[in-house]
Amino acid sequence: MSFFYNIFISLMIFGMKIFSLFNDKAKKGVLGRKESLQKVKLGLPANDKVIWMHAASLGEYEQGLPVLEKLKEKFPTHKILITFFSPSGYENVVKKENIADVVCYLPFDKKAQIKEFVSHLNITLFFTVKYEYWYNLLEELKQKGTRIYVISALFYDTQSFFTSHGKWFVKQLQKNVDWFFHQTEMSYALAKSIGLTQSSVTGDTRFDRVKQLRNQDNHVEFIKDFIGRDKSVVFGSSWQAEEKVAEEVLLGTPYAKLIIAPHDLKRVQHLKQIFPNAIFYSTIKENEINFKSRVMIIDSIGLLSKLYSYADIAVVGGGFHHAGLHNILEAATFGVPVIFGNHYRKNPEADELIAADGGKSFENTGLAADFVMFLINNEEILSRMSENAKKFVAEKPESTTLIMQKILS
């Protein structure tokens, strides 16, 4: 099975290189990996002890960050390495202040490349987030005596582990991973059913992360003045479907201000066509806000989590597209009811938020827009859902504390 896995990796690399000829995001990933080895050679001398976190993309990075921060506090002399598979994660983190000594792309999981990359590092602890498993990497790390953990692990019954050809993958995890910290009881039970018994349920570290958001400075200039006395709806990480919801809400009620933060700034030009009278955040100057406009487009990065603190209602992107639901907890932590599409198989927190009556999912944009307008005009129900969303996050256990207790033991 190892032979077939390595064939698959080679085919994946070939496919990504071909795709990179036509796709800028893929191109960044392919070219960025050529710099990874040099970055660790320059930034992490061989005698430095290293704590390494790997995340597939930005969402997993946010999930792992609370644990990484605590590890840095406990081991202040250790260097920090963060690797990504996806350009969307790497591009966002490398451009802003972070606790890492080196941020780079994870090399493709070919034995020779991984062996060379790992050989330059003195790694004392490695953890990956959720379900990002690269088997040659895990094997090489274990051979060097590295402790290996999976943070916020999430198993679901359609993964390859639960198929007839999944025994090899399970065996690799059994021998190489020291401990799985599961998000849910269901994940724990599934892992245990296939022999992955080195595990415990510690919850989702994203709850720890978003609780921190409430205590930071969340001021965003001009937003309060723009909203005025109206209700505010923040469309976070929006795709085309969520922008369709915004269109319908704009036409359907005069009593709300809309703030749209697209998932990709390339959508800004499209948004200009849909909302020709919108304000663009980057062009606002003091005393020049057009209070007659009801739509603001956020064409700057790094503001979304703070913008949720100004919201009465949040519509979070990704759930209508099979693209993957974006982070709904960033809004819920501020006591904001969250509306989203119903494609979120890998997001158990979505079902939990709905059950707590702090959020709602819909199969189409029309129903979602109708419910947003319903909330705008029903203060009692809006207030109830707001309180439920805030309580939902606040009552979750401190996952990071539980994880650190196990690691340090």
Automatic annotation (TrEMBL):
Pathway: Bacterial outer membrane biogenesis; LPS core biosynthesis. It is found in: Cell membrane. InterPro entries: Glycos_transf_N, Glycos_transf_N_sf, Kdotransferase. It comes from the Bacteria. Its EC number is 2.4.99.12. Keywords: Cell membrane, Lipopolysaccharide biosynthesis, Membrane, Transferase. The keyword Coiled coil does not apply. The keyword Transferase applies. It catalyses: lipid IVA (E. coli) + CMP-3-deoxy-beta-D-manno-octulosonate = alpha-Kdo-(2->6)-lipid IVA (E. coli) + CMP + H(+). One of its GO terms (molecular function) is transferase activity. Involved in lipopolysaccharide (LPS) biosynthesis. Catalyzes the transfer of 3-deoxy-D-manno-octulosonate (Kdo) residue(s) from CMP-Kdo to lipid IV(A), the tetraacyldisaccharide-1,4'-bisphosphate precursor of lipid A. Belongs to the glycosyltransferase group 1 family. This is 3-deoxy-D-manno-octulosonic acid transferase. The lineage of its organism: Bacteria, Pseudomonadati, Bacteroidota, Flavobacteriia, Flavobacteriales.
